[in-house]
Amino acid sequence: MQRARHSSRSSARRSGTVLAAGMLAALLTLSGCGAADDSSGSSKSAADSADNKAAAPAGRTGSAGGESDRGATDGSPARSTGSPAPTTTHVIRKASLSVEVKSVPKAAAAARSVTEDAGGLVANESTDRIDDLRETSHLVLRVPQAEYDGVLRKLAGGGKLLSRTSEAKDVTDQVVDVESRIATQRASVARVRKLMDRADKIADVVALEGELSNRQAELESLLSRQESLKDRTTLATITLDLAEPEPSAQGTDDDDPGFVDALGGGWHAFVTMVKWIAMAVGAAAPFLAAAAALLLLWRLVRTRLTRRRTPRAAEHASVPPETPSAP
Fold first, then answer.
1. CB-neighbour burial class of residue 156 (10 A; exposed 0-12, middle 13-18, buried 19+)
2. Which of 63, 90, 231, 289 lies 20 to 30 Å (CA to CA) from residue 270?
3. Which whole number is the average pLDDT over 137-144?
């Protein structure tokens, strides 16, 4: 009888050990499945229930079911969750303006002042000079969504509006999706941390550390995306291009030309003609100088030749002709 009892106790102990090992393997398997199916939610529920059974005391619940459990314990009725709370609309707004102004520096300073008064900021600004006559400026402005329309009106009224484009994109679904995935990923990271606290084997610790690193990296990526969406939906982007009118366009606004304009045009034509004549004379000066030198040399040679011929002719005229002698 004692041997039978001892064998039955040994078999019961072996059964308990096998059952404990099976439960630990099931916990590790469920935690791995929860990492792959966090977005769907079905495996997450199974892993949460397994973790709560293994580690959490009875009566501990999540944030979603806490109110109903407390209501049941305190005797108060549980709150109804039939209709979800209304979701705030998240919109990304962009606009581009091209304005012609008389002075680009003054218009750029006015645009900066309007943006700062609205609680915005100048994200980027660049100014270029064209043909040393006029300037152009490119500004990227970020303004709050509530001040978007008012800032647009003020910027468009600062000069002659050449072009205007605007765009609005609703990203409410993306914001809600990212928030839901962040909550799920945080819960997943918390589950892996709990399993690491209970792990007593090096192999299990190493595997859980790798899984925790992957889940934290994905969580950081989701947080970065959430921050980008928050920035773009909180501040609207306005691209402003400022340019001064061309010189020919400035003259079209003047009145018809008068006497002073005609006098100025005649003087300009006279000065231009004198410049061209001076340039022509300057270009021909070397040739004229060479021709004058040749002419002077030719006159000198001719004068000398003439002087030599004159004495010879006089001598020839003074000698009488010889008379023939008588026979």
1. middle
2. 289
3. 94
Distance between the two ends of the chain, CA-based, in angstroms? 211
Chain segment 294-324, per-residue pLDDT in tens: 888 888 888 888 877 776 666 666 555 555 5
Q: Residue 169 is which amino acid?
A: K
Residue 195 pLDDT greater than 70, yes or no: yes
Contact 145, 235 (CB under 8 A): yes
pTM recorded for the entire structure: 0.48
In sequence order, what are the residues at sequence separation of 6 or more whose Cβ sits closer than 8 angstroms to the Cβ of residue 193?
212
Q: Which two tokens stand for residue 72?
A: 């049941």
Report the distance separating Cα 199 and Cα 35, nearest Å: 18
Q: How far apart are CA 303 and CA 103, in angstroms?
A: 75
Do 133 and 247 touch, CB atoms closer than 8 A?
yes
Q: Longest Cα pair distance anywhere in the chain, in angstroms?
A: 211
